[in-house]
Design goal:
This protein is an all-beta fold. It is about 0% helix and about 40% strand.
Amino acid sequence: IEVRDVGGINNVVGKLDIALPRTVQFMRRQVTDCETGEVVSTTDTTLGGEPYEVTGEVGQCTTAGGECCEQPPPELRVDVETDVLCIQDAAGEIVGQVVAERVYDDQTGDRIEQRLADPTTGAPVELPAGAT
């Protein structure tokens, strides 16, 4: 802003610099060493992916009072453990084999289900009454 009061009583001539702070949103990607937790590298880009040079202080963005987008539920991923087991009848005799598949939630580690399958066909197997 340039101020001139040449014809007035004060005879003021000069310039006044005013810095107006502004907020710029950008994306910061940090690579962290898994063992030490140390930040190995930092890359700043615009939201469109162009390189961005940060000036001033960096802080976490806050919402402007609106609702944030609802995050989709995490994709279900599973771990499957398999074993070949023998089927015993009530008398203790081996009457066959099954493949036991134990399915675990990859995120929580909880067992979701256990399936029994025929080892040669993969078809589901129901244990006969009294068998273990």
